[in-house]
Amino acid sequence: MDEINEIQKQQPVLTDYFANVIMQEHLAHAYLLTGPKGIGKRTLALWVTQGIFCQNKTAGSPCLNCEECRRIASGNHPDVVHVAPDGLSIKVEQIRFLKSEFSKSGVEGNQKVFIIEDADKMTVSAANGLLKFLEEPSGNVVAFLLTESVNRILPTIVSRCQLFELAKPTSAQLTATLRKTGVTADKAIILGNLADSSDEAKKIATNEDFDKLVRNVCVWYLHVLQGDARCFVEVQMNLMPLVNNKDDEVILLNLIILLVKNSISVYYGEKDNIFVKFQADFTELIEKLTAEKVTEAVELVLATRKRLMVNVSFQNVIEALTIDLSQCYHS
Ligand SMILES: [Zn+2]
């Protein structure tokens, strides 16, 4: 329910649009909602569905409290059908089941909604089955297809849908969302700048090593900026022990990217509001660099990200980056 309360703030353009369409009774038969994981595609689809069924709506927006709204939120509404991958894919049997559910509705004339999560995971036969369904829409049916990558959906399906891309929340919005869940101010600012969605940020926030990783990577970066040789051993001693899997690798690299990118802003005189605890130390050292050096450093870390896509040891890559950054800042 919390997420549904938030969706109007996170996706104001889309919720306004859909509220208006509901009010005008101009809903299309099929919508394709796209955007990264955790951005709120499912929540938006549920919010619109509530708007359709709500007994108490205001200008197309659902009340979130009536019987209909509650049943939709809890996944217990008889006229709202969810389809999600069964194992790795959405199979043709699942689409057949969906169609049989909807053939009943034709008789009763009820409004029906179906929501297909990870629609790109449909098998070819499932996609073809769905396509026939979308080509012959029966009266009161609205479909929501959700996907992280619209490129993996059959073009013939895409062409039957209205496509909407969900906007990424700004760093400030993410930070505010995290603060409300009880994350400390310092941590919320870093996470707000690090993550693409509130789900991703909340997930990182639960990583018990995250605070330590932030502290250690800041000390490492301080030593890189100071030209202090301790930064070389710190990769193995202080950073690698906190990196246990691919997700951790991404977090560490994104923290380094954030530190190095933030250095450009600091160089050009912006106050460092992200790494607050290290603000004074970083600023003093960064001000002594040149515009060329702070820019080149960003290119170095972005090149490192590319290097990681090839299968090489993460530790080797971070050690090489430490050498490159040290040379860049102190040449
Ligand atoms: Zn309601």
From TrEMBL:
Transmembrane segments: none annotated. SUPFAM superfamilies: P-loop containing nucleoside triphosphate hydrolases. GO terms for molecular function: 3'-5' exonuclease activity; DNA-directed DNA polymerase activity. Pfam families: DNA_pol3_delta2. InterPro entries: DNA_pol_HolB (IPR004622), DNA_Rep/Repair_Clamp_Loader (IPR050238), P-loop_NTPase (IPR027417). GO terms for biological process: DNA-templated DNA replication. This is DNA polymerase III subunit delta. It comes from Liquorilactobacillus hordei. The lineage of its organism: Bacteria, Bacillati, Bacillota, Bacilli, Lactobacillales.
